[in-house]
Write a structure and sequence with these properties.
The complex is a heterodimer of chains A (114) and B (112). Chain A has 114 residues and is an all-beta fold. Helices cover 0% and strands 55% of the residues of chain A. Chain A is built from no helices and 11 strands. In chain A, strands 2, 4, 5, 6, 9, 10 and 11 form a 7-stranded mixed beta sheet that branches. In chain A, strands 1-3-8-7 form a 4-stranded antiparallel beta sheet, with no helix packed on it. In chain B, strands 2, 4, 5, 9, 10 and 11 form a 6-stranded mixed beta sheet that branches. A 5-stranded antiparallel beta sheet of chain B has the order 1-3-8-7-6, with no helix packed on it. The relative contact order of chain B is 0.34. Classes of the chains: A mainly beta (114), B mainly beta (112). The interface between A and B is medium-sized, with 26 and 22 residues.
Protein backbone atom coordinates (compact mmCIF):
# COMPACT_ATOMS: atom_id res chain seq x y z
CA UNK A 1 0.00 0.00 0.00
CA UNK A 2 1.68 3.21 -1.20
CA UNK A 3 1.11 6.49 0.57
CA UNK A 4 2.10 9.03 3.17
CA UNK A 5 1.89 8.29 6.88
CA UNK A 6 1.96 10.83 9.65
CA UNK A 7 2.27 10.10 13.32
CA UNK A 8 0.93 10.60 15.81
CA UNK A 9 -2.62 11.52 14.81
CA UNK A 10 -3.07 13.62 17.95
CA UNK A 11 -0.30 15.24 19.99
CA UNK A 12 -0.44 17.24 23.17
CA UNK A 13 2.43 19.40 24.28
CA UNK A 14 3.15 21.57 27.26
CA UNK A 15 4.30 25.11 26.67
CA UNK A 16 8.07 25.35 26.36
CA UNK A 17 8.55 21.83 25.00
CA UNK A 18 9.86 20.88 21.57
CA UNK A 19 7.93 18.19 19.72
CA UNK A 20 8.66 16.26 16.51
CA UNK A 21 6.02 15.22 13.99
CA UNK A 22 6.77 12.24 11.79
CA UNK A 23 6.15 12.04 8.03
CA UNK A 24 7.06 8.98 5.95
CA UNK A 25 6.30 8.22 2.30
CA UNK A 26 6.85 5.08 0.23
CA UNK A 27 5.91 6.70 -3.07
CA UNK A 28 9.54 7.29 -4.08
CA UNK A 29 8.81 11.01 -4.36
CA UNK A 30 11.71 13.46 -4.32
CA UNK A 31 9.87 16.53 -3.01
CA UNK A 32 8.18 16.74 0.39
CA UNK A 33 6.30 19.55 2.11
CA UNK A 34 4.97 20.60 5.51
CA UNK A 35 1.85 22.75 5.82
CA UNK A 36 0.02 24.22 8.74
CA UNK A 37 -3.76 24.49 8.61
CA UNK A 38 -5.78 26.88 10.79
CA UNK A 39 -9.53 27.49 10.51
CA UNK A 40 -10.32 30.03 7.82
CA UNK A 41 -6.70 30.37 6.70
CA UNK A 42 -6.23 27.52 4.29
CA UNK A 43 -2.88 25.76 4.08
CA UNK A 44 0.31 27.67 4.73
CA UNK A 45 3.72 26.31 3.73
CA UNK A 46 6.21 25.82 6.57
CA UNK A 47 9.17 24.05 4.92
CA UNK A 48 9.80 22.03 1.79
CA UNK A 49 12.52 19.77 0.50
CA UNK A 50 13.10 18.92 -3.15
CA UNK A 51 15.99 16.54 -2.55
CA UNK A 52 17.70 14.65 0.27
CA UNK A 53 19.90 16.79 2.53
CA UNK A 54 18.39 20.02 1.21
CA UNK A 55 15.35 22.02 2.33
CA UNK A 56 13.98 25.56 2.06
CA UNK A 57 11.86 27.78 4.27
CA UNK A 58 8.26 28.34 3.31
CA UNK A 59 6.07 31.28 4.26
CA UNK A 60 5.86 30.60 8.02
CA UNK A 61 9.11 28.82 8.98
CA UNK A 62 9.80 30.71 12.20
CA UNK A 63 9.70 28.40 15.23
CA UNK A 64 9.97 25.24 13.13
CA UNK A 65 12.86 23.06 11.96
CA UNK A 66 13.15 20.08 9.60
CA UNK A 67 15.65 17.51 8.39
CA UNK A 68 15.81 15.36 5.25
CA UNK A 69 18.35 12.63 5.84
CA UNK A 70 16.41 10.00 3.88
CA UNK A 71 14.26 10.30 0.77
CA UNK A 72 11.26 8.73 2.46
CA UNK A 73 11.32 10.76 5.69
CA UNK A 74 10.78 14.46 6.43
CA UNK A 75 10.23 15.08 10.17
CA UNK A 76 9.09 18.47 11.46
CA UNK A 77 10.10 19.82 14.87
CA UNK A 78 7.89 22.42 16.47
CA UNK A 79 10.14 24.32 18.83
CA UNK A 80 9.32 26.34 21.92
CA UNK A 81 9.99 29.46 19.81
CA UNK A 82 6.73 28.87 17.89
CA UNK A 83 4.33 31.19 19.70
CA UNK A 84 1.06 29.67 18.56
CA UNK A 85 1.69 26.02 17.65
CA UNK A 86 -1.82 24.63 18.12
CA UNK A 87 -2.91 23.63 14.60
CA UNK A 88 -3.45 20.78 12.15
CA UNK A 89 -0.17 19.85 10.44
CA UNK A 90 -0.13 18.25 7.00
CA UNK A 91 2.74 16.59 5.21
CA UNK A 92 2.70 16.19 1.43
CA UNK A 93 4.88 14.88 -1.37
CA UNK A 94 4.89 15.41 -5.09
CA UNK A 95 4.78 12.80 -7.77
CA UNK A 96 4.19 12.96 -11.48
CA UNK A 97 0.78 12.01 -12.77
CA UNK A 98 -0.15 12.29 -16.42
CA UNK A 99 0.73 15.81 -17.56
CA UNK A 100 1.09 17.54 -14.21
CA UNK A 101 2.57 17.09 -10.78
CA UNK A 102 0.09 15.98 -8.15
CA UNK A 103 0.72 16.77 -4.51
CA UNK A 104 -0.32 13.87 -2.22
CA UNK A 105 -1.21 14.61 1.40
CA UNK A 106 -0.88 12.55 4.54
CA UNK A 107 -3.75 12.24 7.07
CA UNK A 108 -2.38 15.01 9.30
CA UNK A 109 -1.34 15.48 12.93
CA UNK A 110 -3.40 17.65 15.25
CA UNK A 111 -1.11 19.38 17.74
CA UNK A 112 -2.55 20.97 20.86
CA UNK A 113 -0.50 23.00 23.29
CA UNK A 114 -1.81 22.77 26.84
CA UNK B 1 1.00 38.57 -6.44
CA UNK B 2 1.31 35.17 -4.83
CA UNK B 3 -2.21 35.11 -3.42
CA UNK B 4 -5.10 33.00 -4.55
CA UNK B 5 -8.43 34.47 -3.45
CA UNK B 6 -11.29 32.02 -2.92
CA UNK B 7 -14.98 32.63 -2.40
CA UNK B 8 -17.40 32.02 -0.83
CA UNK B 9 -16.09 31.01 2.58
CA UNK B 10 -19.09 28.75 3.08
CA UNK B 11 -21.83 27.42 0.86
CA UNK B 12 -25.10 25.63 1.57
CA UNK B 13 -26.73 23.78 -1.30
CA UNK B 14 -29.74 21.50 -1.54
CA UNK B 15 -29.26 17.96 -2.81
CA UNK B 16 -29.36 17.91 -6.59
CA UNK B 17 -28.34 21.54 -6.90
CA UNK B 18 -25.22 23.08 -8.42
CA UNK B 19 -22.36 24.16 -6.15
CA UNK B 20 -20.06 26.87 -7.52
CA UNK B 21 -16.79 27.96 -5.91
CA UNK B 22 -14.65 30.72 -7.38
CA UNK B 23 -10.95 31.55 -7.27
CA UNK B 24 -8.88 34.43 -8.61
CA UNK B 25 -5.13 34.84 -8.95
CA UNK B 26 -2.66 37.58 -9.86
CA UNK B 27 0.52 35.82 -10.90
CA UNK B 28 0.40 35.19 -14.65
CA UNK B 29 3.25 32.69 -14.31
CA UNK B 30 0.92 30.19 -12.65
CA UNK B 31 0.26 27.32 -15.01
CA UNK B 32 -1.33 24.60 -12.90
CA UNK B 33 -4.64 24.97 -11.07
CA UNK B 34 -5.83 22.05 -8.91
CA UNK B 35 -8.83 21.70 -6.65
CA UNK B 36 -8.55 19.69 -3.45
CA UNK B 37 -11.33 18.14 -1.36
CA UNK B 38 -10.88 17.72 2.38
CA UNK B 39 -13.13 15.86 4.82
CA UNK B 40 -12.95 16.70 8.55
CA UNK B 41 -9.85 15.31 10.25
CA UNK B 42 -8.34 14.10 6.95
CA UNK B 43 -5.71 15.36 4.57
CA UNK B 44 -6.79 17.05 1.32
CA UNK B 45 -7.10 14.89 -1.78
CA UNK B 46 -6.79 16.03 -5.38
CA UNK B 47 -10.19 16.31 -7.01
CA UNK B 48 -9.51 17.78 -10.45
CA UNK B 49 -6.92 20.05 -12.03
CA UNK B 50 -6.52 22.17 -15.15
CA UNK B 51 -3.78 23.82 -17.21
CA UNK B 52 -4.29 27.22 -18.88
CA UNK B 53 -4.31 25.76 -22.39
CA UNK B 54 -7.96 24.66 -21.97
CA UNK B 55 -10.98 26.61 -20.77
CA UNK B 56 -12.88 23.74 -19.22
CA UNK B 57 -12.24 20.29 -17.81
CA UNK B 58 -14.92 17.85 -16.71
CA UNK B 59 -14.62 14.70 -14.61
CA UNK B 60 -17.95 13.16 -13.72
CA UNK B 61 -20.02 15.71 -11.77
CA UNK B 62 -17.03 18.03 -11.27
CA UNK B 63 -16.07 20.72 -13.80
CA UNK B 64 -13.35 23.37 -13.73
CA UNK B 65 -13.99 26.50 -15.77
CA UNK B 66 -10.92 28.59 -16.50
CA UNK B 67 -10.81 32.20 -17.73
CA UNK B 68 -7.21 33.13 -18.50
CA UNK B 69 -7.88 36.77 -19.39
CA UNK B 70 -9.78 37.37 -16.17
CA UNK B 71 -7.32 35.28 -14.14
CA UNK B 72 -10.17 33.34 -12.60
CA UNK B 73 -11.16 29.72 -12.31
CA UNK B 74 -14.10 28.01 -10.71
CA UNK B 75 -15.29 24.59 -9.58
CA UNK B 76 -18.80 23.47 -10.47
CA UNK B 77 -20.32 20.46 -8.74
CA UNK B 78 -23.40 19.27 -10.60
CA UNK B 79 -26.15 17.27 -8.89
CA UNK B 80 -24.59 17.96 -5.48
CA UNK B 81 -24.91 15.13 -2.97
CA UNK B 82 -24.66 15.04 0.85
CA UNK B 83 -21.45 13.05 0.41
CA UNK B 84 -19.92 16.09 -1.29
CA UNK B 85 -20.09 17.98 2.01
CA UNK B 86 -16.46 18.90 2.66
CA UNK B 87 -14.02 21.79 2.47
CA UNK B 88 -12.73 22.61 -1.00
CA UNK B 89 -9.45 24.37 -1.70
CA UNK B 90 -8.32 25.86 -4.96
CA UNK B 91 -4.59 26.21 -5.56
CA UNK B 92 -2.12 27.43 -8.14
CA UNK B 93 1.51 26.83 -8.93
CA UNK B 94 4.27 27.53 -11.35
CA UNK B 95 5.74 24.23 -12.43
CA UNK B 96 9.25 25.52 -12.07
CA UNK B 97 8.86 25.82 -8.30
CA UNK B 98 6.29 23.09 -7.56
CA UNK B 99 5.07 25.21 -4.64
CA UNK B 100 1.30 25.25 -4.41
CA UNK B 101 -0.38 28.47 -3.28
CA UNK B 102 -3.71 27.62 -1.67
CA UNK B 103 -6.92 29.57 -1.38
CA UNK B 104 -8.51 29.91 2.06
CA UNK B 105 -11.06 27.16 1.48
CA UNK B 106 -14.84 26.85 1.06
CA UNK B 107 -16.91 24.76 3.43
CA UNK B 108 -19.68 23.12 1.40
CA UNK B 109 -22.74 21.64 3.07
CA UNK B 110 -25.25 19.73 0.95
CA UNK B 111 -28.59 19.11 2.61
CA UNK B 112 -30.99 16.34 1.55
Amino acid sequence: DGGITQSPKYLFRKEGQNVTLSCEQNLNHDAMYWYRQDPGQGLRLIYYSQIVNDFQKGDIAEGYSVSREKKESFPLTVTSAQKNPTAFYLCASIGTSASYNEQFFGPGTRLTVL
Amino acid sequence: QQQVKQSPQSLIVQKGGISIINCAYENTAFDYFPWYQQFPGKGPALLIAIRPDVSEKKEGRFTISFNKSAKQFSLHIMDSQPGDSATYFCAASNDSTDKLIFGTGTRLQVFP
